Design the sequence.
């Protein structure tokens, strides 16, 4: 099986690395990081870049497509080259998946119409623009399309996919390999669980960040 | 605060990216990926490489040091340049941390003597070589040294650290930002929880992998 993970400019690293670290151990699987251009893809922090040995002109099919989220999604969702590539790869996949705001790219590519779907909790309502029904769930399988919630949810999504593809023994062995026995010191990972003032802190920080980010990307002329 | 994350050849990506994705949002924090050489650091999959803008000759202090694990640790733990760097940086840190078998590098640098410490469950007993007392816990703070269990535990470790440094509100806001509300489809992330036959599968796979890996690295003359 071939897994293609799209790395557009300003993706969020954990969105991509979570699924990678699970799916690369699926028996008989090869993972490819696919950039818009070959070279390096800069993540949203600006100081983490990943080498892309493949680009969207060199990859024409995949068994599993993974679209991570990240602030660069606001540019990617309007990039005809990326949307066209996502549509073409989707036509060849067994599973088309997203983590975080990666689902907005799937939506912009027209793949979520009439489906339940999720994304980072801050951006759920945006999914309606694409004819999807937003839901605050961690992993949402809808036929061959599987969307997952914010950033860290890609690990859960990939384990769910591994169970579907290779069965529970293999999925559990992958979970044990990466010792995924989560014990966060707080139970604040969802707006349903975090204290209201913490949710408000994050909402404000994201809003401020995106205002600045949008200006900066607009000034830079998009891509 | 400066966070230095060491990327030696054949590190495991999620070990490094988990803490990165949490700590980079700590207010006033700068994260640096530090390679043995500047350029790129190849992870253990062979097809994921991260750009290293810093190397061990250019970084001489850090407030937080993070040592990830990975098969390359079996070379790094005998590399005098790396051990010397870890000791020198440790002398400057507020926190010296490890994920997975990164703790074996801390042990080899002489930093775990007399301490309780953890690592990936498969390698716990190795910690005794360095005078540490192994414990199958997820995050083990011992003064300024904090060791964490296998691969994915770096997320929990970084959130624990964030709470110590910046308080529970900030730590919870980071958890909510990355929507870390884990819901793995199985409860098999620890050898205390996984079915015995699954644990045996993983033990065998790791043993086989390391036998091949050790031969390959020996044939390549270490680094």
Sequence:
């Amino acid at each position: 099986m071939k897994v293609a993970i799209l790395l557009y400019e300003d993706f969020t690293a954990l969105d991509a690395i979570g699924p990678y670290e699970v799916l690369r151990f699926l028996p008989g699987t090869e993972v490819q990081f696919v950039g818009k251009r070959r070279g390096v893809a800069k993540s949203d922090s600006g100081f983490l870049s990943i080498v892309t040995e493949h680009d969207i002109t060199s990859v024409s099919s995949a068994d599993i497509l993974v679209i991570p989220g990240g602030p660069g999604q606001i540019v990617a969702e309007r990039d005809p080259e990326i949307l066209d590539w996502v549509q073409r790869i989707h036509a060849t996949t067994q599973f088309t998946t997203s983590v975080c705001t990666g689902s907005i790219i799937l939506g912009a590519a027209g793949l979520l119409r009439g489906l339940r779907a999720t994304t980072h909790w801050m951006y759920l309502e945006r999914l309606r623009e694409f004819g999807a029904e937003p839901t605050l769930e961690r992993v949402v399988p809808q036929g061959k399309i599987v969307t997952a919630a914010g950033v860290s949810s890609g690990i859960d999504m990939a384990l769910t996919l591994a169970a579907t593809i290779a069965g529970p023994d293999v999925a559990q062995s992958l979970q044990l390999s990466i010792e995924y026995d989560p014990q966060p010191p707080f139970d604040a990972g969802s707006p349903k669980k975090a204290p209201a003032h913490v949710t408000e802190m994050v909402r404000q920080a994201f809003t401020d960040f995106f205002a600045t980010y949008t200006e900066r990307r607009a000034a830079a002329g998009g891509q």
